[in-house]
Amino acid sequence: MSNKHLYNLQNETDIRGIALKNNEKEVTLTNEEVKAITIGFYKWMLNRSKTKNLKISVGMDSRLTGNEFKHTIIRTLVSFGATVYDCNVSTTPAMFMTTVISEYKCDGAIMITASHLPYYYNGIKFFTEKGGLEKEDIKEILDLACNEKDNKLFIGEIETRRLTRSKPLIDDYSKILVEKIRKEVDSKEDYNKPLKGLNIIVDAGNGAGGFFKEKVLEEVGANTKGSQFIEPDGTFPNHIPNPENKEAMESISKAVLENNCDLGIIFDTDVDRAALVGRDGKFINKNALIAVISAIVLEEHKGTTIVTDSVTSDGLGEFIENLGGKHHRFKRGYKNVINEAIRLNKEGEECHIAIETSGHAAIKENYFLDDGAYLISKILVKVAKLNSQGKTIEDLILELKVPEEENEIRIKINGENYKECANKILKELENLVNNSDNMKFASNNYDGLRVICNSSLGDGWFLLRLSLHEPLIVINIESNKKGGVQEIISFLREFLKGYDLSEF
């Protein structure tokens, strides 16, 4: 049987597919695909490794098919002679850490997750000691998987269990975070409990992040009463585990207010993203979260460059510059942002953080790994220090200017040649802006077209770009006046009416 359909499962730098039957889409990711892709990864690792005795860790989030796929992956690897560490329910960043921390030192790591996608999805992420794999690496793995002709006799379930080592990864990783908080706060009153007296809650959305409540927050003294959706449940019955989702943010905001909390923490499914809610219930995500960590990093590294994605606000750029930093607004896509930060450092421009408005944040001191738990731990150090001064995390971003209005519009491009259509739209918009008295292009833009509008046309800006993964035009809009967003939308609606697009 041909495995060419495996290429359809590539999602840029990982694998994603439909793993359970649902009313809308057919199943595309089964044990057969998982087995073939695992063999591809194993052989890819052999090709790049100096050893033939590979050690590979395997973990999963709370998805319903996670355990089944985990057993398939482990059995496949063990049958090929690999040493396998079973890390059970884990986080994506913790799985990477198995390649670098001394107790593990794995050659590679496999995480079974589909991030925040609906329950019927699942997927696979791969790591080496250099970080998450690139798009080209995934293509090579699928090439090997598609050409797989090995009829190896797979060992039985009992033998698989005998040859697999169970590892308490989340316990080990939590200890690293706890020690970081204790050491960096260095409380003279209670070294082991630097967050004592603070009520901080967690919303894990029934993903893999519930460990943070008991194994991190409570270990450093926080009162976690009011935490919610801690237990892993792959049906995600309460809300989507996604710090960008309004319903999810409103849920933890309500919990913060009802429990009179000092802070709320929310993670996505596999904990590579995070966001906060302040004691007043206000969201600290997107631009506000970037502002918080930028303020912290700039205290430690004066003048450093902060790399973000393309949809950040003008107010954030001013905030960073007023703190003495440099804002480098790059492209959407967390790997794009991380790789740009790495590139800048290699070229001699100091950069200590790469962060997307989605909540992906990668810090140089932590291998440029996008790790929601590490990000929050670093922020909690500052929370403890501010608390000793009678201040809160919100005090860090008092000077952050927020727009009067903002909106994001996603417009479907009809027809098969959606990229050609998008390019025509961008070209026509470029010509229009160049001949306009009310618009001009933002400087140093790397993603689509970012257009500044004067007071005659909305008093703000919009960014028009093609979606990374779907046949969609995505438009982000901000305005400094009431009704300004609608003015910009009206202009865009008139401009786009000649194209074969869905209504907006």
TrEMBL record:
The name under which this protein is listed is: Phosphomannomutase
GO MF terms here are: metal ion binding; phosphomannomutase activity
By sequence similarity, the record places it as follows: Belongs to the phosphohexose mutase family.
Organism (species): Clostridium uliginosum
Which UniProt keywords are given for this protein, alphabetically ordered?
Answer: Isomerase, Magnesium, Metal-binding, Phosphoprotein
- Keyword Isomerase listed: yes
| One Pfam family, short name | PGM_PMM_II
| Gene Ontology BP annotations | carbohydrate metabolic process
Q: Which InterPro entries match?
A: A-D-PHexomutase_a/b/a-I, A-D-PHexomutase_a/b/a-I/II/III, A-D-PHexomutase_a/b/a-II, A-D-PHexomutase_a/b/a-III, A-D-PHexomutase_C_sf, Alpha-D-phosphohexomutase_SF, Phosphoglucosamine_mutase
* Cofactors: Mg(2+)
The Alpha-D-phosphohexomutase alpha/beta/alpha domain covers which part of the protein?
A: 11-148, 178-280, 287-397
Signal peptide residue numbers: none
